[in-house]
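User: Could you check the structure of this?
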Amino acid sequence: MRLYIKEKVFSWGDKFTVKDASGADKYIVEGEVFSWGKKLHVYDMMGREVAFIKQEVWSWMPTYYVFCNGLQVAEIKKEFTFFFPKYSIEGLGWEIDGRFMAHDYEITKAGCTIVTISKEWMTWGDSYELDITDPADELVALAVVLTIDCVMEAQAAAASSAN
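Assistant: Sure, the predicted structure tokens are below.
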């Protein structure tokens, strides 16, 4: 199954929709504007919060917690590396590998693909395609991908403000 994320370019508070393969809205993602650390809420089309992503503010490397239906399901950490970004996903037994700067990566469990992520280039705003193998993993896979995007966005903002 496929999900599509198209983030709005000038979106105050990170508000965008996630669409299914037919182009219908499936989830609404909304960030908190004024909060300590990044926080994202994922709502179904009935307005119920189905996932929540929260940044740990006081950590040496970026650390995020992923909650689905009120329960913490994963902790995602950016690992210390010199050249290429690397992330660990704790709590799910999932591994992540690929070219993060190109937004082309894959999440696996015991060698089996959970989700592949690819960025569509030449679009207005960031557009991603998530190809999820098992529909039961849809919500958690979406939340993990959104979390990695948060880390990359925060790093890009920090790098541009340093220049």
